[in-house]
Amino acid sequence: MIKNTVIRALATVLLLCASPALWAQIITLTGADFKPLLGKQTGLYSFFAMQDGRLSPVPHQWVQWSKEGYPYFQEDDSTHLLGDPLRIDSEDRLLLRFEDGGPALSGQVSEQVVADLVVTHNDQEHHFYLVKNAYLQSTERYVQFDPKSMTIKSTDFALSMADQNLFKWNDFYFRGFEGENGQRQSILDTLKLRLSAGVFGENNRVTLNNNNLDPKVKQIISGPLAAMVYATTSVKVARIPVLRIHNYFLVMPQQVDIHSRFTLPGIADTVLERPALDISLDGNDLYDSKLVTSWTGNHVAITDGVLSESEKAMLAMPLKGNNWIWFGTGRGFDMLAQLAFVKGFDTPARLLYQDDASQVNEPERFAGQLPNVGFSLTDIPFGKEFYFITRMYYSQDSNGLPPGVYAKNLLTEPKARLLMK
């Protein structure tokens, strides 16, 4: 018995060491996975798991959703709450850390366990137990957003923003990443948002960037697994409103989701022609980093300050399907990014990739685009609301897996079964 226990414990340790990034992932379930508990008060239930031979509380977070299909914030008067904020509804989202789950219960416990939540993800099965009226509660918090200093800190990364502006991303540090000289280095130059359009004619083209966008933070919801921020942005040209944006940020320990709703009002058609939008992240001297996408075949982009023929071929291929971009620095930081088009998109989208040590692309803190990576949307129609989700997953060396395998593992949705006791 003791020998088998030691073997199982050793196997668990080896599995954890073999796949740290996957085990630290935040998984999202919906209220529909809790059908027997629909309508019950969320505050009655806590989540526990078997850890070190005992049933221990683990952090969880319920996220409310709107009837319109977005994360719900009370200060967003363009949406309406779906269901009761104090009860489990089918469209609620539940956040859990997959690594917090444990093995099945063995023996009797003193807690009032009402259900066993069995979560399967990439052939791994973890158990979470719902305990009613639990005395013990998890006090762990994995991410914080400070609106005064405009900084985000999680267990794995830190991000600062300038000028009290959510769109002016500055220093970005990731646990374990070092510069070429072995010292701490910001991975990021900045986030770049660029809206370009012809003003009163195609030949008079104007470009707005982060410096022209001033998002207003309307509400912050702090939780143990996600810091949620709602912000709005409006832009006028010649006193005519030409852009309205609603952003819902969900910041997690190794992940950032940005839900974006934007509209070019119909009246903007009298001012603008052929508007286009670029969204990208500019790296800080990330030489020898590699980029692979889900839609450009076997092409690999390598940051060396020169745009190769292979990289030019990648730029010519339109984005399609369930897209992803994998970016690896080879120095302890990788990112997987996905752009999910949810509503309104018939407009073409392509890869944005700039690899040039001398190219200027404002806003800019460090010289050059080394590299600047993102997406380009062209010929955006007027009078129509667009909704897309930008997801960015951060890891240390992608678990040592090839990009395609890592992306498949990371983006595969978990499956859940609720077994009532």
Tell me what the structure shows.
Strand 19 (290-293) and strand 20 (301-302) form a beta hairpin. A nine-stranded antiparallel beta sheet has the order 14-15-16-17-25-22-21-19-20. The protein has a five-stranded antiparallel beta sheet with strand order 3-2-7-6-26, with no helix packed on it. A five-stranded antiparallel beta sheet has the order 13-12-18-24-23. The chain is globular, with a radius of gyration of 23 Å. Residues 1-23 have low confidence and may be disordered. It has helices at 2-18, 20-23, 309-315, 403-411, and strands at 26-30, 45-51, 54-58, 60-63, 93-97, 113-121, 124-132, 143-146, 151-154, 157-161, 169-174, 188-199, 205-208, 216-222, 227-237, 240-252, 255-263, 272-283, 290-293, 301-302, 325-328, 334-343, 349-356, 369-377, 385-395, 415-420. The chain is mostly beta strands and 421 residues long.
SSE inventory with pairings:
Layout: H1 2-18, H2 20-23, E1 26-30, E2 45-51, E3 54-58, E4 60-63, E5 93-97, E6 113-121, E7 124-132, E8 143-146, E9 151-154, E10 157-161, E11 169-174, E12 188-199, E13 205-208, E14 216-222, E15 227-237, E16 240-252, E17 255-263, E18 272-283, E19 290-293, E20 301-302, H3 309-315, E21 325-328, E22 334-343, E23 349-356, E24 369-377, E25 385-395, H4 403-411, E26 415-420
Antiparallel strand pairs: 1-5, 2-3, 2-7, 4-5, 6-7, 6-26, 8-9, 9-10, 10-11, 12-13, 12-18, 14-15, 15-16, 16-17, 17-25, 18-24, 19-20, 19-21, 21-22, 22-25, 23-24
